[in-house]
Design goal:
The chain is mostly helical. It has helices at about 10-25, 40-70, 80-105, 120-155, 180-205, 210-235, 240-245, 250-255, 260-280, 290-310.
Length: about 325
């Protein structure tokens, strides 16, 4: 059985049609036709079906706006997603073929052979289960990025605070996003970036001793990296978040989970360090422990921030 091949389309309705075809191809195979333990296979199938349904719900919101507002707009869908759909269809087809084959296996005595755990047929189904799980994880990573694009679309075209009532469903693998929460997070991160830039300006004006020249140079380099990483995550679009995910960097879902309180604490730490420099209390090897605390706070804040943004490599 060959899986249906899908190609990207400019129309939301056509995209929905492709997803509907995909869902049909993911109809649950008859798992009762074999003696092989299929609990894990059934679970992987159900989880995959749910994320496909969730993606369909996102496209449905675009289609509703396309119809009601007569908008000339198409959601930006990475072309590889359609390869993903075809791969899912192929995996499910192979799963059904394997189950059918085992259900009809007749031995030399004319009896139906029942595959047992550890048999070749059992291992084949386990491999298919792993393939389904890999596909599920991939789409689960894509969904928050697609939802990010939808958030921006709704804010620009409809002024809605929430992504959509249609997506506030328990079957979704993530909670609904409040646009205001993301706006607050971005605002605080922009503020943090400005504070770090302020520290850099102060360092450039600060006349440190020769002993501190190397220390200040390293610190300047680390602070510049912080600004660079913050700029990247604050300006990422949907496709750039996908690229970030593929490279093992910060994902959009992880970005949304950043605690605003943590950002504010980091901002406060950098401000303390900047105030110390302005007060002409340069941290040095001869300074008291109390005087060196502010320098340590700056170093610790850099480590925490880069770790938070997955930029420690």
């Amino acid at each position: 059985m060959e899986a249906t091949q899908f190609t990207p389309s400019a129309s939301c309705s056509q995209l929905l049609g492709a997803i509907d075809q995909a869902i049909q191809s993911l109809q649950r195979p008859d798992l009762e036709l074999t003696g092989i333990s299929t609990d894990r296979l059934a679970y992987q199938y159900q989880a995959l079906h749910e994320v496909v349904d969730s993606f369909r719900a996102i496209l449905a919101v675009y289609e509703n706006h396309e119809r009601s507002e007569e908008l000339d707009y198409s959601p930006v869908i990475d072309p590889t997603f359609f390869d993903w759909i075809a791969n899912c269809s192929t995996t499910v087809s192979c799963m059904q073929e394997e189950i059918d084959k085992q259900a009809g296996a007749i031995n030399s005595d004319g009896f139906v052979e029942i595959a047992m755990p550890g048999d070749e047929a059992d291992l084949a189904l386990k491999n298919l289960a792993n393939s389904l799980d890999d596909n599920r994880k991939l789409l689960s990573e894509f969904l928050p990025i697609l939802r990010c694009d939808l958030d921006e679309f709704l804010a620009a075209h409809a002024g809605q605070a929430y992504i959509s009532p249609n997506l506030e469903d328990n079957t979704l693998p993530y909670p609904p996003t409040v646009q205001g929460d993301i706006h607050t997070l971005k605002s605080k991160l922009y503020g943090l970036s400005d504070t770090i830039k302020m520290c850099l300006e102060t360092i450039n004006r600060f006349n440190s001793s020769e002993d501190l020249t190397a220390v200040m140079g390293d610190l300047r380099q680390d602070l510049q990296k912080c600004v660079q990483v913050l700029t990247e995550v604050l300006t990422n679009n949907g496709s750039e978040w996908i690229e970030s995910m593929i490279q093992g960097k910060l994902t959009y879902a992880e970005f949304c989970e950043i605690d605003v309180e943590d950002v504010m604490s980091l901002d406060s730490a950098f401000r303390q360090f900047n105030d110390a420099l302005h007060s002409h209390i340069p941290p040095s090897s001869t300074a008291s422990h109390e005087d060196s605390v502010n320098f340590s706070i700056a170093e610790n804040a850099i480590v925490i921030l880069l770790s938070l943004l997955k930029a420690t490599g």
